[in-house]
Write a structure and sequence with these properties.
Length: 494
């Protein structure tokens, strides 16, 4: 390997590591914000829902597409929401193309007979996907406030009573609640998804919101002021994460967001890796699309502070961290050999300590979010250590898949909104076998994921002749992560 090539590899590797380090510092700052906020006691103006004059009209929107397995559960749960019937309407925004439409229509008719104002709204086509459905429903919505729930979410009956009062503050455009997980312990896959989402819904959402930095409506389990949606330019379907897009447009117009960590809205996590893949792809590609669409508006905004801009840019770059991680992983083996060939460049390899420091920072940050939900006993800490390194390995295993998504997003390649299939999985005895919405084809990335598993096995072997075991744990996690994703993908067909 020539010295020029070696220096190019070192430069790319070091740049990716430094970006990951900046991301971890941003997370550390959010942790400090989070811990500071937990000690504060805030009083906010609230509607008195015991006074009929203060009860606003609310529309609940349920955007659905081919949800045969969860429709009955969803409608039965929403029918239990406690709110005056004269001030509540429910829109079932049904874009389905299968037989579930018939059963949904029947159940809605039954609920209408109970006096519930519930409408079954169908469109000619799926233009704009979920954003298009929400926009069409909004045009005829009677509510001053719009609550949105995806098909797998099961809000508690008093959900509106806990969220609507905060809109007494006329500057608040959105109230978002924390996601819960009804099937957290179903498998390793659901446990690590819950782990990652818990970090987002505690550390990140509270950490940003507590200091007035931009947060995002999470697409579901939140409620909008209708005026805020319209003022921000309404729903747009030009990115795969329409929720993030509208959130930033609203906050750039000075609307405030209120995040309620204490209000949990349970939902179902994907139990099959093909479903998790499609969800991860949409979220990560959508994040990159929103970076392209919004970052310049954030940087040039006159009405927000430098710190809010920094956190906004890091937030929009969240998914791009997978690209940085994948670059670091891919180049780590050549770096091992460069270190052995060019001894005089040894000082450059101190930069690898950035990755160790970044990992330690994330380990500390995620522990605080984990213990806030699971508890802080010694047993919980031991469980946390195992879960953190399992999560870390599988996240590394997803890095190729998510890098493809991020690159497509940054390069502006358009793709359709692929929904995440729902399973109605509530406990360990429920099965996903036979679900007709599962992807029938194996992911083409699987061949590369297998090749990468072998590649990192070679990386572990390389430590022996080079007598350099510094990257061995990293290569082991990469080997296990890509192996997990590959073998789970191979066996996840219905």
């Amino acid at each position: 390997m020539g010295l020029t090539i070696a220096l190019i590899i070192i430069a790319i590797y070091s740049t990716a590591l430094i970006l990951i380090f900046f991301y971890s510092l941003a997370q550390l700052n959010l942790l400090i914000n989070y811990l500071g906020y937990k000690k504060r006691n805030e009083e906010a103006p609230k509607f008195n829902l015991l006074d009929p004059k203060e009860i606003p009209f609310v529309t609940i929107q349920l955007p659905i597409y081919n949800e045969e397995y969860v429709m009955e559960r969803l409608l039965d749960n929403i029918a239990k929401i406690e709110y005056p019937k004269s001030k509540l309407e429910i829109q079932v925004l049904d874009d389905s193309t299968d037989d579930s439409v018939i059963e949904t229509a029947k159940r809605i008719e039954e609920l209408q007979k109970t006096g519930l104002d519930i409408q079954h709204i169908r469109r000619e086509n799926r233009k704009g996907f979920k954003a298009g459905a929400l926009k069409e429903g909004l045009a005829i919505a009677k509510g001053e406030f719009i609550a949105i729930f995806d098909a797998d979410f099961l809000p508690e009956s008093d959900w509106l009573k806990k969220t609507v009062p905060y809109f007494k503050d006329e500057e608040i455009g959105v109230v978002q609640t924390r996601w819960g997980h009804i099937n957290r312990d179903y498998s390793t896959l659901t446990r690590i998804q819950a782990f990652a989402l818990d970090a987002h819904f505690t550390l990140e959402q509270v950490g940003r919101n507590s200091k007035g930095h931009f947060i995002n409506f999470n697409g579901t389990a939140g409620i909008w002021r209708k005026q805020c949606i319209l003022d921000a330019g309404n729903w747009e379907g030009d990115t795969l994460t329409e929720d993030l897009d509208l959130s930033y447009r609203a906050q750039l117009k000075n609307w405030k967001f209120k995040y309620l960590e204490d209000v949990e809205t349970p939902a179902e996590l994907p139990v099959v890796i093909s479903a998790a893949r499609s969800q991860q792809f949409r979220w990560n590609k959508g994040g990159a699309e929103n970076f392209r669409k919004t970052v310049w508006s954030v940087i040039t905004a006159k009405n927000i502070s430098f710190k809010t801009k920094f956190h906004g840019v890091m937030h929009l770059l969240n998914s791009s961290m997978f690209l940085c991680v994948f670059i670091v992983a891919l180049l780590s083996i050549p770096m091992l050999y460069i270190k052995n060939m060019y001894g005089h460049l040894g000082w450059i390899f101190e930069v690898t300590s950035f990755f160790i420091v970044s990992t330690i920072i994330l380990f500390v940050c995620y522990w605080f979010t984990y213990k806030s939900i699971q508890g802080s006993s010694f047993d919980n800490f031991v469980d946390y250590i195992k879960l953190f390194f399992t999560f870390f390995s599988v996240a590394l295993g997803f890095s190729l898949h998510n890098t493809v998504a991020v690159l497509e997003g940054h390069l502006g390649k358009r793709s359709e909104f692929v929904r995440t299939p729902k399973f109605n999985i509530n406990n360990l005895t429920d099965t996903w076998k036979g679900n007709k919405y599962l992807a029938k084809k194996l992911s083409p990335n699987m061949i590369l994921e297998f090749a990468l598993m072998v590649y990192f096995l070679f990386g572990m072997y390389s430590a022996i002749p080079l007598n350099d075991y510094g990257l061995f744990p990293f290569h082991l996690m990469l080997f296990l992560g890509f192996g997990f994703v590959f073998f789970k993908s191979l066996t996840s067909k219905a």
